[in-house]
């Protein structure tokens, strides 16, 4: 449990407030989600100590999760190295070791659900076209994609065809339908799922669509009960 001399900072203050309010039933579940695409550095060490250390202080648990959503850069060698480094720092994830790729089927089904609820659409704009001509700037609102008006049925069909490998890398993307005039540029219809024809070190050639960070991590946290 939390020691009487534990340090104070905004993270711990938020956790104390949640516990006092009975949020999540008083449970504390954190996670360390590195991408296995290289060796960890000093910044990762700090994150590990915060993620695992805070969980220990408050009698909770920390998950170790590999963010393996970019198959062109990732390798099992880095997974093993990350595990060694976490243990070298004195921490243990116990039975709570996960991969983002554990959830690839769920990302796809939830993408379909977002389309059905008209919260997402398949967009044909390239990344460059969207960022230069449609996303806008910090001071200027963006413009709605010309593909945002597609029907639910057409979007579902195109998303299925993305999954089945019919299109080239970058040819289409599943995009969230949020608010192109939002002052927060991250809310301007961000991409959720991209096409990438590449062999994955765990799932092989089963998938050619992969989730983006902002789509994957919030879902993973929800699946695992991260508080």
Write up what this structure looks like.
The protein is of the alpha/beta class and 227 residues long. 37% of the residues lie in helices and 13% in strands. The chain has a four-stranded antiparallel β-sheet with strand order 4-5-6-7. The protein has a three-stranded parallel β-sheet with strand order 1-2-3. Strand 2 (61-66), helix 3 (76-88) and strand 3 form a beta-alpha-beta unit. Helix 4 packs antiparallel against helix 6 (152-163).
Write a brief caption for the model.
By secondary structure, the protein is of the alpha/beta class.
Features:
single chain, 227 residues, alpha/beta, three-stranded parallel sheet, 7 helices
Oligomer: single chain
* Secondary structure: helix percent: 25-40%
For the largest beta sheet, what order do the strands appear in spatially?
4-5-6-7
Give the CA-based shape: globular
**Biggest β-sheet, characterized?**
4 strands, antiparallel
State the end-to-end distance: 17 Å
**Element-by-element helix/strand order:** HEHEHEHEHHEEEH
Please tell me how large the radius of gyration is: 20 Å
- How many helices in DSSP terms? 7
- The whole-number mean of residue pLDDT values reads 96
Which ranges are low-confidence, i.e. pLDDT below 50, for 5 or more consecutive residues? Answer: none
Structural class computed from helices and strand pairing? alpha/beta
Number of strands: 7
User: What percentage of amino acids are in beta strands?
Assistant: 5-15%
Write the layout of secondary structure elements.
Blueprint: H1 10-20, E1 29-32, H2 42-57, E2 61-66, H3 76-88, E3 97-99, H4 104-116, E4 120-123, H5 127-134, H6 152-163, E5 173-176, E6 191-195, E7 209-211, H7 213-224
Parallel strand pairs: 1-2, 2-3
Antiparallel strand pairs: 4-5, 5-6, 6-7
Helix pairs in contact: 4-6
